[in-house]
Specification:
Number of strands: 15
Number of domains: 1
Strand content: 15-25%
CATH architecture: 3-Layer(aba) Sandwich
Order of helices and strands: EEEHEHEEEEHEHEHEHHEEEHHHEH
Number of helices: 11
Distance between the termini: 39 Å
Radius of gyration: 19 Å
Helix content: 25-40%
CATH topology: UDP-N-acetylmuramoyl-L-alanine:D-glutamate ligase
Length: 310
C-alpha cells in the first residue's frame, strides 16, 4: 500500500526575520530560511520521518519547482510531480514586531496539465490512501477536488482531505477517511459561532452525519477533539515552547495516518498525530522523528462520557 499526498499549489516558503520592520524604508534581514511549502508536501515529509511509505504528487514548475524537488530528493522523500509551464509560487513569511504573510497566487494550470495529474492518480489501488491538502490554484476548475475524490472512490481507495471550509463541505458526501478542520473552519462550514465545548462537539459530530468517517477538530493550544462515530476523545497537547505554527496541522494528519495504516486504531493514531503536530510547533521547521516520538507519552487522551457530550 502507498500513501499519496496531493499538493495542487505548492510553494517555496521564504521566511524572513527583520527587527522592527519600517514600511517605505530600507530594511535589512537578520536571517532568512527557505523551505518547500504546501500542505501535502508537509504531510509527505513527516510521513517519511515516521518511516511510512509516501509519494508526493502535485503541480510544480520553473526554478522554484526544481528547488522543491531537489530538497525532497535530498531528504529521501519520493515524488511524482506533474510539471507545468508556469513557476511554482513563493510565499513570504515576514517575521518582525508583527508577523506578515504574502502568499503567491500560483501558476496557471492548463486543461492538459490537470488531466495529466488525474491520469497519475488513476494508477492507485484499493490498498492506497490519498491525502488532499491545501488550496488549489485559481485556474483549476471549481470541482477539481470532487473529481479527485470521485476517482479515488472509483478505485476503492481511501482519502483524507484538509482544505478550505467551502471545498470541504462539498467533499463530505464522498466519505473521506478523515477531515481536520480547526475551530474557525468548523464555524465557516456551518455558518455559526461556537460558544464553548458543547458546540464544538455538536458540530464535530455533524461532520460525521454529512459523510466523514472520522473527524479531528483542532483547537490550537487547547488540543483537539477526535470524533469516531461512537465516541468523542479529547487530546491534550504536551507542554513546550511554540516556535512555529506552520505545518503543525499537516504534521498531525501525517502522524495520524502513519499510525492508522499500521494499527487501524484511531485513538492511538490520534495520540501520534497530536505528538507530531506539537513537535513541529516546537521546531523551526517540520519535526524530526526523535522529537515526535519523545512526545507521544506526554499527550493526554481522554474519552468524553455521555454527560460531557450534550
Amino acid at each position: 500500500m502507498m500513501i499519496y499526498t496531493l499538493t495542487l499549489n505548492p510553494s517555496i516558503d521564504y521566511i524572513v526575520h527583520v527587527k522592527n520592520v519600517q514600511l517605505g524604508e530600507l530594511n535589512r534581514m537578520e536571517d532568512d530560511f527557505k523551505f518547500p511549502g504546501g500542505k501535502g508536501i508537509n504531510v509527505s515529509r513527516i510521513l517519511h520521518e515516521l518511516m511510512t511509505e509516501t509519494i508526493a504528487l502535485g503541480f510544480i514548475g520553473g526554478f522554484t519547482g526544481d528547488f522543491i524537488e531537489y530538497w525532497l530528493k535530498n531528504e529521501g522523500v519520493n515524488t511524482d510531480f506533474t510539471r507545468v509551464a508556469g513557476d511554482t509560487r513563493i510565499n513570504i513569511k515576514l517575521k518582525s514586531n508583527v508577523e506578515t504573510e504574502i502568499n503567491g497566487i500560483g501558476p496557471k494550470i492548463s486543461v492538459e496539465e490537470a488531466n495529466a495529474l488525474l491520469n497519475k492518480l488513476s494508477q492507485i489501488s484499493s490498498e492506497d490512501i490519498v491525502v488532499l491538502s491545501g488550496s488549489k490554484p485559481p485556474s483549476l476548475s471549481g470541482d477539481f477536488y470532487q473529481k479527485v475524490a470521485n476517482l479515488t472512490r472509483e478505485k476503492g481507495a481511501e482519502f483524507v482531505i484538509d482544505t478550505t471550509s467551502n471545498e470541504l463541505k462539498t467533499i463530505l458526501p464522498f466519505r473521506p477517511l478523515l477531515v481536520k478542520p480547526n475551530l474557525e473552519e468548523l464555524e465557516a462550514i456551518f455558518g455559526i459561532q461556537m460558544n464553548g465545548l458543547d458546540d464544538v462537539i455538536k458540530y464535530g459530530n455533524k461532520l460525521l452525519e454529512l459523510g466523514a468517517q472520522t473527524a479531528i477538530v483542532s483547537m490550537g493550544g487547547n488540543g483537539a477533539l477526535l470524533f469516531t462515530g461512537e465516541d468523542v476523545y479529547q487530546g491534550i497537547n504536551p507542554k513546550g515552547n511554540v516556535k512555529n505554527s506552520v505545518g503543525a496541522g499537516d504534521s498531525l494528519i501525517a502522524g495520524f495516518i502513519s499510525r492508522y495504516v499500521e494499527t487501524k486504531d484511531v485513538v492511538s493514531a490520534f495520540q501520534l498525530g497530536i505528538a507530531s503536530g506539537s513537535a513541529t510547533a516546537f521546531s523551526s521547521d517540520l519535526a524530526k522523528r526523535s522529537e515526535i516520538l519523545s512526545l507521544v507519552n506526554k499527550v493526554g487522551i481522554k474519552r468524553l462520557d455521555s454527560a460531557n457530550l450534550y
